[in-house]
Structures are given as structure tokens and as C-alpha cells.
Design goal:
CATH topology of one domain: Isoleucyl-tRNA Synthetase, Domain 1
Distance between the termini: 37 Å
Oligomer: single chain
Radius of gyration: 30 Å
Strand content: 5-15%
Strand order of the largest sheet: 7-6-5-11-12
CATH class of one domain: Mainly Alpha
RNA sequence: GCGCUUGUAGCUCAGCCGGAUAGAGCAUCGGCCUUCUAAGCCGAGGGUCGCAGGUUCGAGUCCUGCCAAGCGCGCCA
């Protein structure tokens, strides 16, 4: 409809150019918008105001000339000029009712578009280190990333959802060592657990399983393990040095092969847990990409060589540096440390090179907002690799701040004191969690009060929307009980009887849905969809309280049933994009 | 100190790449169930859009400065 009106206006502008009322070279950016207030019609444009200067006339007379040159269109009932020079379009009653028919015809496909034209987009999200269960912070990234991916898919993009598994690096070594130490305890060895180790119960569980499966073959006496190690923090030493030394000790005592078994015992079990957790949260991936496979397949080396050939690498202080500051970064970054190890950043360069080579038209990374300083160096890397950095879009998600009433919940993965995503799901349910997470703009802090969500979950807006859906289902059950058959064609014929302002409001809202899906998708802002659904539900509840659907007048009844069936369809479609269920009864 | 982000109702937040009297939820107060689910509806109060300038027909929205908050400034990941 917007497009239709814009074309009409374009015709009027061209007519005025021919008439010499407008300079030939005016290039109008025609913007037709939905009105906020129904008193201003259905659509409005500020065209006369933006062209006033070029036409050297006041906006209102220009608007009158534009309107005079406007072609006829069956969907447009009348056109008015208002305020400082707005041109307001009032749609005909017939065109207003078309949406009910359109929704009925499209069903669950209503709201989908081909805007993306099949372009391939990769959305990488969550990608939490597999060093422990997902916590509520990851939950937000999961809900947001999944919603963005769903929206893009609904807008005609070919979407691949990917999880980057950080199964290499120091954090994983700390996990492996933690597992091994707990394993030693399982074998009966008394020991002091390092301050920097992972203390969660899940580490003990993994160790116990390892002990049960493999027996005591990884046992080494505590004396040899701790011999000549630098002291831990509680003993006045440095926790980082202590844990690094412990890792080294584990490697030497166990040997590469056995160390790998212990390492993988932790990795496999935690990764499997994350996978199940996300799946139960309604989040499924097309691809799980291993960081370790990058290094082992030589991709990191290859990426470094590519940068080198492009002339962006140099040596300083024994390390190999990437001259990212030449490409907009604050400073240069190390890719190979003086001890010969490649950095996490080097892996990331290789990873992004690999993504580019896999041929995606656009790459989307969902990151925690605390990583925002990392964006310039990755973009610099893309440029150095010969790619357009604009192909990568980094979407930031602020961490959720958890509260229990007025008490802020402290979280730390290592101490094991954190609220897991699983606990959250158990407390408030998947639907409420998914919806709550995307209700706010993603780069804003989210205050998540567990007490409120758990004790008084009725207040959660998701139930409000689901209730609207269930209520409509209930009306149709009542219809059956009364022994009335729904006559869809009769209802379609009688749509013109939907004249109550509350019915009109619903019709307008329904017609907006495809636009909401599209803007939500293209701006990566699922909260627009969440708000839209709440408004639609509200307008339905209002209508429900004011208008009886199951009236004796069959024509009117069927018209209203067609309307609320359309509402039900759009509620279901929208909720499904957020992976929230649409219950038939509550 | 530098960089990024954010300041809108008592609280939590929307405000669609400049438009018409600034919106919602919660909270507060007052109404509505013999009729399709009251997890609902209707109404009321509540605002110097952080502050000060600027850009123009027009600014919560764009620009500059200041104030405040969060995050980031590793040969960590």
C-alpha cells in the first residue's frame, strides 16, 4: 500500500515538473508513513514540506497542487491536506477489509516476504566457552540471536545459525586441569583446589564419570603434582601463575594423549549439555564450528600467511604483530606471542576468513557488549584479508542484571555461583524467558527480577499475548458447542459490517504486521515485534470486552469470526518467530 | 586520560533512519463478572525527553559542549 501511494505521488510530482511548477532536477525522497493518529487518515506524507523550498512556494499551496495532480486509485477513499502541509490518505472501507482475506489465504505464511531475495546470511550467536553450563547472560544472546535469525529467514534470507565452539585456549585448559584435580580427589587424594579453577559441581560430576569409566589410569600422586609449583593466591602467590603451572604439570605428567582424554571428557560433556539446554530453549543451530579444528587444520597458519602476504605483519619484541592501527584500530595487535603460541585473535581472524570463504553475503555476530572494543580489530582483519568489512555486522547484547527482589545476584562462572539458563527456564518457563529477553532493545541493560518472574509470573506480558490467542480458540470451541458451523465465505462477504472502531483498530493493526516483521528483521530489533504483539493482544482484549462475537445474526457472526481468526493467525505467526508457544487454552 | 554505549512518567522501557496534542507496562487511585476465560476491560493522576547552545518551516530524534552511569582500553579469552 505504501508503495502504491508513493507511485501515485511520484506521478503527481512528474506532472508538476511538466507543468513547470517544479524544477526538472528535483529528486523527491518520497516518504509515506502510517499515521500515528487515525484522525490523520491511514497514511500521510510530508512531501509538500520537503519540496516547498525547491518549488519556491509555501507547503500548503504546493500540497494542493500535488493533490490536484494525484491519480485515482480504488483503495484511496479521499485525500486531505492538514497541519503545516501534510497530505493525508484515507483508505476505502473495502481495502481496509482485504487484510482478513489476505491472512486467511496466506495462513502461517502471512507476514513473510522475499525482501532478502535468498541472500545467504550467517548468524553466529551464544558461542559461550564450553567451560560450564550456560547462564542467564548467555540466555539473552540466545533468545536475541535466535529471534534475529528467525526474522531474517522470514524476510527472505537464507540463514545459517552457527555456534563457534571455543574448544581451544587457556580457559579450556583450566577446565581440563580442574577436571583432573577433581578426578584425583575421586581417587582419594587430598588436595587444595586452585583459586582459579572451575569449582562448579558439574566439574566433580565429570571427574566422577571419568573415574568410573577409565579407572585410576590418570592418577598421579599429589606430591609430584605440586612439586615446585609457584604458590596460589591464598598462600600469597599469584593465582594466574599457579594455575598456568598446574596446567603445564598436568600436560607433562599425563602426556599429550591422556591429557587430551581428560580434556575431552570435560569438553564433550559440557558441550552436549549446552546443546540440550539450547534446544530445550527452542534454539537450534545448523552448524557447530570448532575452534580447535581451525588450528589443527592449519587455518590459523594460513590466515597469518595471508595477512603477511598483504603486508600487514611485523615482528617486535619477539612477537608477531598485525598492523591493525593502519585500518582503524586503536593499536596494533599480537597474533603470535613471543612463546610461539598464537593468540585468540589469530584464531578469530582464521575463523572469519573461513566464514568469508564459505560464501556468505553477510555475516552477523552476536556478542556480549563488553566485547565492543574488539570490533575494530576484527573489521581491520577483514579489510586486510581483502574483504569489505561492511559484510560483518556485530550486534551487541548487554548482559542481564539479575535481581532477587532488591538484592543484586552476583555471578561468577568460576566460583560456581551463578544462575544457569536451565534454572531460569525451570523457574519461569521457556516462553516467559524467551519473550522477556527480547522485550528490550538488545544493547540496553536488562533488569531481570527472578523473584518477580517466579512468584508472580502472571504479570509477565507473554501470558497476556498467549491469553488473547487462547481466548480466540475458546470462542471457536463455544461456537462448536452451540452447534453453529462457521461459514467462512459468508463472513468474507459480510466484512463490511465490521464497523465498530475497535474492529477497525484491529484491521489496521493486522495490516501492519508484514511491515513490523520487515523492520524488525532489517534493523535486527525483535523488540518491535514483541511490542507489536502486545498491542495487537491489547486491541483484541478491548474488542472482546466490547463486542460479542457469537451473535445470532449469522452474517455478522461469521464476519467477526473471520476477523478474530485473522488475529489468532497473526498472534501465532508472530509468537512463532520468537519461538514462544501459542496455547489453545490457558 | 582516550574510545564506545546510554540518560524519556515513581519503577522498567518504547518512540518506526526530523513531523501533527510525547506512548506502553508495572505501581497508585476509582469503576466493570447471572452473557464468548476478570491471566481481561474502562477511567484518573503522573513529563523542563540529563543540562546548555546550534542546525530549520518543525528536534525526544541531527551537530557541539558539559554533567552522570555502564562497558572497553593485555603477548587473557
Amino acid at each position: 500500500m505504501k508503495r502504491t501511494l508513493e507511485n501515485l505521488l511520484l506521478g503527481a510530482v512528474n506532472a508538476l515538473k511538466l507543468a513547470g511548477e517544479l524544477p526538472d532536477d528535483t529528486d523527491p525522497a518520497i516518504a509515506v508513513e502510517r499515521t500515528r493518529d487515525s484522525q490523520h487518515g491511514d497514511f500521510a506524507t510530508n512531501l509538500a514540506m520537503t519540496l516547498a523550498k525547491a518549488a519556491r512556494t509555501a507547503p500548503r499551496p504546493l500540497a494542493e497542487k500535488l493533490v490536484a495532480c494525484l491519480g485515482q486509485h480504488s483503495a484511496v477513499d479521499r485525500v486531505e491536506i492538514a497541519g503545516p502541509g501534510f497530505i493525508n490518505f484515507y483508505l476505502s472501507a473495502e481495502s481496509r477489509f482485504e487484510v482478513v482475506q489476505a491472512i486467511h489465504a496466506a495462513g502461517h505464511q502471512y507476514g513473510l516476504s522475499r525482501h532478502g531475495n535468498g541472500r545467504r546470511v550467517q548468524v553466529e550467536f551464544v558461542s559461550a566457552n564450553p567451560t560450564g553450563p550456560l547462564h542467564v547472560g548467555h540466555g539473552r544472546g540466545a533468545a536475541y540471536g535466535a529471534a534475529v535469525a528467525n526474522l531474517l529467514q522470514a524476510t527472505g534470507f537464507e540463514v545459517q545459525r552457527e555456534y563457534y565452539v571455543n574448544d581451544a585456549g587457556r580457559q579450556m585448559d583450566i577446565l581440563a586441569t580442574s577436571v583432573w584435580l577433581r578426578y584425583l580427589e575421586e581417587c582419594g587424594a587430598p588436595l587444595v583446589f586452585p583459586a582459579n579453577g572451575y569449582r562448579g559441581d558439574y566439574v566433580r560430576a565429570i571427574a566422577a564419570e571419568l573415574h568410573q569409566r577409565e579407572g585410576e589410569r590418570f592418577f598421579k600422586s599429589p606430591v609430584t603434582v605440586w612439586q615446585d609449583l609457584p604458590p596460589d593466591e591464598p598462600q600469597g602467590g599469584d593465582r594466574e601463575q599457579h594455575i598456568d603451572a598446574l596446567i603445564e604439570r598436568a600436560r607433562t605428567l599425563l602426556g599429550d594423549a591422556d591429557y587430551r582424554i581428560v580434556f575431552d571428557a570435560g569438553l564433550t560433556r559440557i558441550l552436549a549439555d549446552i546443546r540440550t539446554d539450547l534446544s530445550e530453549f527452542g534454539v537450534d543451530y545448523q552448524n557447530w564450528y570448532s575452534e580447535r579444528s581451525l588450528a589443527e587444520g592449519g587455518a590459523v597458519q594460513r590466515a597469518i600467511e595471508t595477512l603477511d602476504k598483504a603486508g600487514y605483519l611485523y615482528t617486535r619484541d619477539g612477537a608477531l604483530w598485525f598492523a591493525s592501527s593502519r585500518l582503524g584500530d586503536e593499536k596494533d595487535r599480537v597474533v603470535v606471542r613471543d612463546n610461539g603460541q598464537t593468540t585468540y585473535f589469530a584464531s578469530d581472524i582464521a575463523y572469519h576468513l573461513d566464514k568469508l570463504e564459505r560464501g556468505f553475503d553477510a555475516l552477523i555476530n552476536v556478542w556480549g557488549a563488553d566485547h565492543h572494543g574488539y570490533i575494530p580489530r576484527v573489521k581491520a582483519a577483514l579489510t586486510a584479508l581483502g574483504a569489505d568489512p561492511e559484510r560483518l555486522q556485530v550486534l551487541l547484547v548487554q548482559f542481564a542484571v539479575l535481581w532477587r527482589g532488591s538484592e543484586k545476584v552476583q555471578m561468577s562462572t568460576r566460583s560456581g555461583e551463578f544462575v544457569t539458563l536451565r534454572q531460569l527456564r525451570n523457574e519461569i518457563g521457556r516462553d516467559a524467558a524467551r519473550f522477556f529477553y527480547v522485550l528490550r532493545k538488545s544493547d540496553q541493560h536488562l533488569d531481570f527480577d527472578l523473584e518477580l518472574a517466579a512468584s508472580n509470573s502472571n504479570e509477565n506480558p507473554v501470558y497476556y499475548i498467549q491469553y488473547a490467542h487462547a481466548r480466540i480458540c475458546s470462542v471457536f470451541r463455544q461456537l462448536d458447542e452451540k452447534g453453529w458451523a462457521r461459514d467462512i465465505p459468508q463472513g468474507m462477504q459480510a466484512l463490511s459490517r465490521l464497523l465498530d472502531p475497535r474492529e477497525s483498530a484491529l484491521l489496521t493493526r493486522l495490516a501492519r504486521y508484514p511491515e513490523v516483521v520487515e523492520t524488525s528483521a532489517l534493523n535486527y530489533e525483535p523488540h518491535h515485534l514483541a511490542h507489536y504483539l502486545r498491542e495487537l493482544a491489547h486491541e483484541f482484549h478491548t474488542c472482546y470486552n466490547a463486542v460479542s462475537f457469537l451473535v445470532d445474526d449469522a452474517e455478522l457472526r461469521n464476519a467477526r469470526l473471520n476477523l478474530i481468526a485473522a488475529v489468532r493467525q497473526v498472534l501465532a505467526n508472530g509468537l512463532s518467530l520468537l519461538d514462544v508457544s501459542a496455547p489453545e487454552a490457558m
